[in-house]
Specification:
This protein is an alpha/beta fold and about 350 residues long. It is built from twelve helices and twelve strands. About 50% of the residues are buried. Bound molecules: beta-D-galactopyranose (GAL).
Length: about 350
């Protein structure tokens, strides 16, 4: 536990100093898998328990997969579908806070929250704990100090998610593994790239931006950031931003890093419109392993992606919620691993 907290504290310090994809790089701490065993399937004692789920925004490809699997798995474990309420925060913290207040007033047995703003976690935790309701955070990791508070107070609060540094590193490695020869199309000895970021309030965006580039420099490659823009995890924004960058920097762009697959799909549309061909005169990577992207990776239209395991995470979150409901405790941090997806192994992810 202590080791993990040191890692989390370090990560927090890095998040503060790391600004953007054109910035420097820091050391990664190893991911730790603390997933624990699930409760027995189809537990009838869960049938009358109420679960409140808050999703930061329904209009998000990855979180749609996550919440669908979460609901299905909760039902498979014995909860009644009628007792699982899932709310759309519409990417607005005030809206989500109101939804949390309503769940508290209804007296749900457990809350699973994907916060709109990770920085609101302390406020959310305080009111949920005061109401005596156990709380499982998902997908958007609260700050290390916040997680430390749960441990110090032995509160029934935990976080289930993956270490975003690992996903960034894997994106960078996918490009580094191609070799400078292949990627350095303009022959200037550098990897000339653009970065399309998710919501910068989010550690996933911060760490993927930083660690993708760190993996290149760790591999001894020189890098040149041509552009770094915020696409808020959104396909349409990704398309626009990459379209603009292609008009501005043209053939100088060798690699397009997108913090997620939705934006990579948008990027691909603009790359095709510009008459460029991934794998030949430009390279493109995302994160999530959305089905459509895995298909593109297997036929070479996208260079690679990284599996963001929504099944492991949603099951982990439900299992943690069940333990809380059953009066058991959870580790404060429950992690899982990302996996690189390239043309060589894409078939396994279809
Ligand atoms: C990330 C995921 C993105 C987006 C984001 C929302 O983990 O890769 O696609 O869903 O979470 O916070």
């Amino acid at each position: 536990m202590k080791k993990k907290f040191l890692a989390i504290l370090l990560a927090g310090a890095m998040a503060v100093t790391c600004l953007a994809g054109c910035g420097g790089s820091k050391d990664a701490a190893p991911a730790e898998d603390k997933t624990e065993a699930a409760a027995p399937a189809g537990d009838s004692a869960l049938a009358d328990k109420k679960v409140g789920v808050c999703i930061y925004q329904f209009a998000d490809n990855f979180m749609t997969l996550f919440r669908t699997e979460l609901e299905d798995y909760l039902v498979a474990q014995g909860f009644s579908k009628d007792n699982i309420k899932i709310m759309d925060g519409a990417n607005d913290q005030a809206t989500q806070s109101g939804q949390i207040d309503n769940f508290i007033a209804e007296g749900v047995d457990v809350l699973i929250i994907n916060p709109v703003n990770s920085s609101s976690a302390a406020t959310i935790t305080d009111k949920v704990v005061a109401a005596g309701i156990p709380l499982v955070y998902i997908n958007r990791e609260p700050a290390p100090e916040e997680e430390q508070r749960w441990a110090d107070n032995s509160w029934n609060v935990c976080y289930v998610g993956c270490d975003a540094r690992q996903s960034g590193t894997m994106q960078g490695e996918i490009i580094a593994d191609l070799g400078l020869e292949k990627v350095d199309l303009n022959g200037n000895g550098k990897i000339d790239y653009i970065m399309i970021e998710g919501d910068p309030e989010n550690v996933d965006a911060q760490f993927r931006t930083e660690f993708s580039i760190k993996a290149l420099t760790d591999a001894g490659l020189e890098v040149n950031c041509l552009d770094d823009q915020v696409g808020m995890w959104d396909q349409v924004k990704g398309q626009e931003l990459v379209g603009n960058a292609l008009s501005k920097f043209g053939n100088d762009i060798e690699v397009v890093f997108c913090n997620n697959d939705a934006m990579a799909l948008g990027a691909l549309q603009s790359i095709q419109t510009a008459g460029r061909t991934v794998g030949t005169d430009i390279f493109l990577v995302g994160v999530d392993a959305l089905a459509e992207v895995v298909e593109h990776v297997s036929n070479g239209a996208i260079t690679g992606t990284v599996l963001n395991d929504h099944i492991a995470q949603s099951h982990g979150a439900a299992d943690a919620a069940i333990k809380f409901v059953n009066g058991e405790t959870n580790e404060v941090y429950i992690g899982c691993d990302y996996v690189k997806v390239t043309p060589e192994n894409a078939a396994e992810f279809k």
